[in-house]
Protein 1
Amino acid sequence: SYRVELAATNGTVSVPAAGGVTVTTGTGANDALLVIEGELAAVNAALAGLTFAPAAGFSGGASLAVTITDP
């Protein structure tokens, strides 16, 4: 299976619940660090609904680092 780490700076990320994807770090909603694992099609489906929300009242740069580990 694939492992995807999403690390947000000055905000949070969320992915929709998707069959075949396991959240191993975070909750899947409003996380600064979120790790999901699953087969390619399931991971792609989860990432298709990815959202980023900046921190409340924040003004400035924000980033999202994505690290993918394949089998």
Protein 2
Amino acid sequence: LAEAMKYFNVIVLADPATAARGLFDAELARRFLAEHRAGKRDRSDALWGLLNLELWCRICVDGESPDAVFS
């Protein structure tokens, strides 16, 4: 999970395409990430789910190649 969290801020929070998709509240995701990184709460399940949802959308809905998603 730690390796995947490196991608979380860029892929899920910082990309306007993710926000435009409108599948989740970006501010809540930022709060979950901050709480998780600070050790206040274990938000790994929620963050992992959000990350995978966005990656799935990029690959299966938008048609991006997996290599492009992770580059």
